[in-house]
Amino acid sequence: MRGYRGVKYTLFIFCYFLWVVSAVLIVVGIYAKVAKEKDVVDTLTVDPALLLIIVGSVMFLITFLGCFGALRNATCLLKTFLAFLAVILLLQTAAGVVGYLFTDMVMERTEKLMMKAIVRYREDQDLENAIDFIQKKFQCCGVEDYKDWSHNIYFQCLDTNPSLEACGVPFSCCIHLQNQTVLNTMCGYGMQQLGEPLARQNIFTIGCLEKIIWWAKNNLLLVAGLSGGLLLLEQVCMMSLAAAQISWIRKVQRQKKEPAAVKSGRKDSLWYPAFADFDDD
């Protein structure tokens, strides 16, 4: 009895936690979608706000099946929940294998996506903040180097460009001194006209793609540990708990099938109360 309750409520707690997380993702996605200006051009292949709503909705549905199925001992819901988890696990495994086998293609697509983000830098405030955060965090500038910013119409290094930021880079590329208290947003002006040795004294010249790859390689154990932990929690652990609960319910059904058929003359229901007792006796 205690073993069954442990399996049941452990699965319920896991699913409930992820159910709450999915609800938060949906709320954040809806807020971001509504709060965005209507005339903003979607810069990426998929709008991040829309992506949050879709991912959150799928998580909400799947974890709801797990919560309700575990609490009500409903084998039909638990089987559906288990099938969804199996499909997601297969998709994640396939994505990892494809990413490993076609690394060059993945890197090329990533580079194009990052370059597209640079081109649309000033058109989306959320994207602008994201790029500034990445360049500050990884101490980088552009995709391959700092001159990639010439692809942006505001920073394009042409004599015909009337922008005050022409031939410059965003302030997030600048090297800030430790004792600097006032942020100089004009620190990147004219940096594309300088050679790398001179520009390196004031801004980061290495591209963000190279810096992110370098960070991933140097933190491979951390990345692998987090990925493995999430996979173990979300997939293997919950799949095992769901399968164990289904197996336990089936066992009880088999034990009670013949006596119940004799007494009532009808089949047992596959739907049990929330606090039904499933003993080995």
From TrEMBL:
An example Gene Ontology CC term for this record: plasma membrane
A molecular function (GO) term: enzyme binding
Disulfide-bonded cysteines: 141-157
Transmembrane segments: 9-31, 51-71, 83-102
Subcellular location: Cell junction, Adherens junction; Cell membrane; Cytoplasm; Membrane
GO biological process assignments: pore complex assembly; protein localization to plasma membrane; protein maturation
Keyword Cytoplasm among UniProt keywords: yes
Keyword Glycoprotein among record annotations: yes
Similarity comment: family membership: Belongs to the tetraspanin (TM4SF) family.
Membrane topology field: Multi-pass membrane protein
A matching Pfam family: Tetraspanin
Keywords annotated in UniProt: Cell junction, Cell membrane, Cytoplasm, Disulfide bond, Glycoprotein, Membrane, Transmembrane, Transmembrane helix
Official protein name in the record: Tetraspanin
